[in-house]
Design brief:
mainly beta; Glucose Permease (Domain IIA); three-stranded antiparallel beta sheet; 2 helices; 16 strands
Length: 283
């Protein structure tokens, strides 16, 4: 039995025990890391006799943290990094690197556009703001140094659809439409992260068009159309620039956009750029 299956059985076992102590609450079925188990009772005999502190479960010789509804998502920690911009000046910023437990393979994730590259691949250029200066993206035709998102090349006009983030609460709403990274749509998402709600913004850049009816205040469900792939602000390549940023605590985004303009959405003091693999749903 692999470790995950073993852990899920242990969780079920503990729930059975908890159910015995509090008979008013039925155990029912639980989902642990995507594994559905139909019968908790049949697994009760497999609970090991080792004792572990409340909120943890025995797994072999160690006690592991027990997943709970209050604990959805991961705490994503900011890190400091920087790079030399084209002028040669050093710039520093906060960024949220990919958690080690999130797959590094870009094709493990679901994107707002269908795969547009040979071999069913989606991502041409990935997130590199967590890398050393010399390893970040540079190119003769690329104006920006470093890359805080993923580039998804596709045919012009390919529909771009909303993707609900992992652990997202409710639907996304549109914060801004207009010129930012070329023609762009920026959406706001509330995500449960380590037991608390955090706000994220997602940027869809270089669009050819914005879908009818999509404007600031529009609510978008997973799969809703929001525009078409283009090359506005990026004449080198027809692609979608997809970028995820976590809103800093206490920031009123709508007020910021009103007072400072859309540029506030990508300002380091307002939002922190995040590796999209931390919040994109798996395929
Ligand atoms: Zn990009």
């Amino acid at each position: 039995m692999n470790r995950l299956a073993s852990l899920s059985m242990l969780v079920l076992g503990l729930l059975v025990l908890a159910g015995a102590a509090r008979p008013a609450e039925p155990v029912g079925t639980v989902r642990v890391e995507g594994i559905e188990a139909a019968s908790a009772e049949s697994l009760a005999d497999e609970v090991p006799s080792a004792t572990c502190p409340t909120g943890t479960l025995p797994d072999g010789t160690v006690c592991v943290h027990l997943p709970s509804d209050d604990d959805e998502g991961n705490e994503l920690a900011e890190a400091r990094n920087g790079h030399h911009v084209r002028s040669g000046a050093w710039t520093e910023y906060d960024q949220i690197p990919r958690l080690p437990e999130r797959p590094a393979e870009y094709d493990a994730y679901r994107y707002p556009t269908p795969p547009g590259l040979p071999g069913g691949k989606s991502v041409l250029s990935g997130y590199d703001l967590d890398r050393p200066d010399e390893s970040q993206r540079r190119g003769a035709s690329i104006r920006a140094v470093g890359h805080g998102g993923v580039d998804l090349p596709n045919r012009r006009g390919t529909p771009v659809q909303m993707v609900a983030l992992e652990h997202q609460q409710g639907d996304a709403d549109v914060l801004f439409t207009g010129t930012l990274f070329g023609t762009s749509v920026v959406t706001r998402h509330v995500v449960r992260e380590a037991g608390q709600l955090r706000e994220y913004v997602v940027l869809f850049g270089h669009l050819d068009s914005i879908a009818p009816g999509v404007t600031a205040g529009t609510t978008l469900k997973d799969g809703d159309p929001l525009g078409g792939v283009g090359d506005t602000g990026s004449p080198e390549l027809v692609h979608l620039h997809y970028e995820v940023r976590r809103v800093r605590d206490g920031v009123d985004l709508a007020a910021k956009v009103k007072s400072v303009g859309a540029g506030a959405l990508v300002a380091n003091e307002v939002t922190v750029v995040c590796d999209p693999r931390n919040v994109l749903p798996l395929r």
